[in-house]
Amino acid sequence: MTSSPRPDPGSAAPASGPTWSGPGFAEFVGIVALMMAVTAMSIDNLLPAFPLIQNRFAVADANSLQLLVYVYMIGFGLAQIVYGPVSDALGRRKVLLASLAIYAAGCVMAMVAPSFEWLLASRVIQGIGAAAGRVLSTAIVRDRFAGREMASVMSLIMMVFLIVPMLGPAIGATMLLLGSWHWVFVSMLALSGVLALWFAARMPETLHPEYRRPLSLAATVQALGTVLRTRVAIGYATALGLMTGCIMGYVGSAQQVFDTGLYHLGSLFPVAFGLVAGAMGAATLVNSRIVRRLGMRSLSHAGVTAFTAVGLVQVGIGLHYQGQPPIALFLAVLALNQFLISFVMPNFNALALQPLGAIAGTASSFLGFYTTMLGALCGWLIGRAFDGTVMPVAIGYAVLGGLSLLVVAWTERGRLYRAGISG
């Protein structure tokens, strides 16, 4: 008995047209962006609550509060390795809705946490639940799009997604005005509920029937072998993980940098955080407009080169001001680097998945696990090094940017700044 031929893994049906019964393009982008936004909301709107949580549970070392970010990312990273293979077998819809139930359970556990350790365990469960959004958002886009079109769509999704970091701390601060840090988790629960209802009502199954894979260890190992043998996938995933480490190092230490540990901005912390996130949002919009013309490779290669150069400028400025530059100067340089990183991350993500369309869910799962764990480790190293100055963030950006550039050079065998057939 012969199996039906599989579609070309480098192509996919558009998210419109006679074969598509789902939402229109704008709504499609909105739903998928919200899937990713749950992850950002779960980190960013908790940052203003760190001092209250520290007081409530008598946490002696302020740097230990960063564990609320990093244990979430550990659960988030580890769970990704499961969701992809399961979604390739059962479909995207069932897996996402089940994961949101896990996320909601973590929110409720956090609201009733009697100790800091319990709260950390709740954050792990939240991360496990949120992980499906990271895996399946990418897989759903890859189900519908390919090549530069996929990179353009991912940039639009990232632009919407980045509105959440702009608003997240402000939403968290608003929740604190209600009287307790517990309300921050209420806002997370509400957002996940909106996503569950919207996704269930409007998003059809996007997994191609020809791409369904048996849920078996042998099939999963076979898919993993394909990923590991694909130089482009591993190379760009590694570079993406290093760049993710920059983001995680900044986010993990942002509350201390902007508020309690250095600049003491107080209620203006959400404003400063939002300005930096706004630079990222603007860049992703620009990227979505020009990536189809310039290509993912040339644009991302130029972006990571410029990012590394600005990282070195950050180090120089930090040294000149003994680690405490004027807040306006620090924000300007940091926003520039966040602007540049937005030309890198969505394109690296699309390039890593481009040759793996036939195993998009499993590939997204493995690569998401790898990039998240690498990013969390690098971010933790940057965050734990916070010493009351901007130097750990500046050095982290310069070093990780440089390493990312070297990895990309290895991936492309030294041929940088060129447009490939599909990139």
Automatic annotation (TrEMBL):
This is Bicyclomycin resistance protein. Keywords: Membrane, Transmembrane, Transmembrane helix, Transport. It comes from the Bacteria. InterPro entries: MFS (IPR011701), MFS_dom (IPR020846), MFS_trans_sf (IPR036259). It is found in: Membrane. It is a multi-pass membrane protein. PROSITE patterns: MFS (PS50850). It comes from Methylorubrum suomiense. The chain crosses the membrane at residues 25-43, 63-83, 95-114, 153-177, 183-201, 232-251, 263-286, 298-321, 327-344, 356-383, 389-410. Signal peptide: none annotated. PANTHER family: MAJOR FACILITATOR SUPERFAMILY, POLYAMINE TRANSPORTER 2-RELATED. Its main location: membrane. Residues 28-413 form the Major facilitator superfamily (MFS) profile domain. Pfam families: MFS_1.
